[in-house]
Amino acid sequence: VERSLSWDGTAVVTVDQTALPADYRLLRLSTVDELIAALQRLAIRGAPAIGVAAALGVALAARARTHDGVLDEPALRRDAERLAAARPTAVNLAWGVKRALSRVDGGADAILAEALAMVEEDERLNRAAAARAADLVRWLCPDRPLRLLTHCNTGGLATVAWGTALGAIRALHEAGRVAEVLAGETRPLLQGARLTAWELRRAGIPHRLCADSAGPTAIATGLVDAVLVGADRIAVNGDVANKVGTYSLASAAERAGIPFVVVAPESTVDNSLPTGAGIEIEQRAAEEVTTLAGTLIAPEGTAAYNPAFDVTPAALVTAIVTETRVITPAADSATESLATLGLAG
Ligand code: MRU
After folding, report:
1. How far apart are CA 286 and CA 35, in angstroms?
2. Which of 225, 232, 270, 310 is catalytic?
3. Measured between alpha carbons, how far is 279 from 246 in angstroms, rounded to an integer?
4. Model confidence over 81-118: pLDDT tens digits?
5. DSSP letters of 250-280?
6. Is 23 a known active-site residue?
């Protein structure tokens, strides 16, 4: 499978996600500052992708901070801190930085080796989580062609390869189980329209695009069998931060009694956070809301509320599926949990 992130020997090579679907353009990032800028303008985006990119960024910094074979560790740590602060919500970013830095004693080569190991393992982890999520959805919604709803982009672009929630949708499609995917456009930056619709088309998966505000009514009127999304940070109690708009889908899913399933690698679980209340939500520029493709769509100077993420309470989450386990937050207090049915783990 094609990779959206790689290392060419001296630089990070990535698909410019801001140019899709019009252009499939590769970017070559050879400094930590270029990489930070790419993360901030969402040329590289999606929690798993930014985690691996961050590790590659530490590798770039380590090479630049090595002179005559000696690594300037304080300077590297300053670069690493700037990288980790590029975006606040997805815990994968800080995780990627930390994991790469854990090899600092081995110098720049050891850090690069660790980052490359992360590039290598990403697809395997995603496929494992996606396969388990696909099995879960088949069990929850047996014997019928599935109509699935997803939000934002959680495919090969948001990861190194294959994807999380979209990976599960691909697995279900390969098993011949997908009737239709409804993809929410994902205002304001349109990751659903620009990226998910592009990936679904390339994979030959039947789909329709909808405005985000149409998602809850699609669920309420019986057009959706299950909702599948990714995550940017998961608290220990099962609260899930994901792209803004996820919470309304989870609320609608609970009311309609359909499964709301989160697919993410273990690196998205923040074991230091008891609940989602502690998750910092990135606030982005007003222009993302007041303009569309560069054209002003609100009166000049209109202020905007533009959180990039929301937090879905654990009680609305049917299951969180990772490469190693199935967590069932909503069922934890119920008498008959998925765990007792033998589906956990
Ligand atoms: O702002 P973005 O596009 O980086 O937000 C991405 C999301 O919210 C995704 O759903 C999440 O990172 C999971 S990607 C497998």
Report:
1. 23
2. 232
3. 15
4. 999 999 999 999 999 999 999 999 999 999 999 999 99
5. HHHHHHHT--EEEE--GGGB-TT-SSGGGPP
6. no
